[in-house]
Predict the structure of DUF4249 domain-containing protein.
Amino acid sequence: MRLKYLFFILPLLVFFGCEEPIFLDVPIGATRTIIDANVSESNSLSRIILSRSLPYNDTTSFPPIENASIVLFPTDFGNNTFPFNFQGSFSYGALYTPQTQIRLIPKQFYTLNVFLPGNEVEQDTLFQAQVRVPTEVPIEKISFRKSQDQYIVRIHFTDPKNELNYYSWRISQKINGQFILLSPSRIPLSTDRGIDGKSVFVEYPFTSFSLNDTLQVHLKSLDQSVYNYYVAVNNLIEASGTNVSVENPPSNFASTVTGQSPLGFLSVESVSDTEEFAVIDSLLVN
């Protein structure tokens, strides 16, 4: 028996989109807590999804966890805390967003506590993870590569010199008057191997856009542990529906209850957001 675990990373593959589920091998009957946590100063990307795992043949929505207490805080300095509030339940689980604007200090560690109160059969459980905040790399400009009568977004930036950097990037598109974070078929990733200190660009090849589309672009700087986790997720995506055996990506969450190790990951990211722009206006500027 396999457990159906729909990854929701920063909402990477499912939020406002429809993607194929990813299947992870776990023992029969095992129910796991799923914590997909993307934390940043970006109001567009900072959110946490809590749910329970489902058996392979179960086609219902992922059971949400609606009664959690969640707080982010500096691991070894200061006394600022950033609580998260429950916003609602969806097919992928329960959505939590920051209560106030999050402010992060680069190169410092932050800890996320996820507390689940117990009941008659389960004891209180605290899940905890910590991640170092990477250096933010600002977007310098947006350009486009024409593909027939559509346009592929290119994101230009300068890689900080003499330090290891790891990147991912996303695009929000205005649809019916509301910005929707687009769901790529896999997680776009890059390192600064071979480009240390250079001015470069990356493309978002998953969606092409028309002249009248309105967009916002997000360039995410990642900790190495988060980058490695995303690589493992991409390997699962590529192996889905094949006979290739791929190990489950390890979680960075620890639990106060023996045997209650969750699925999912904490990613604390530095994000550079562009202003909202229309494709046609950006082409005229460039």
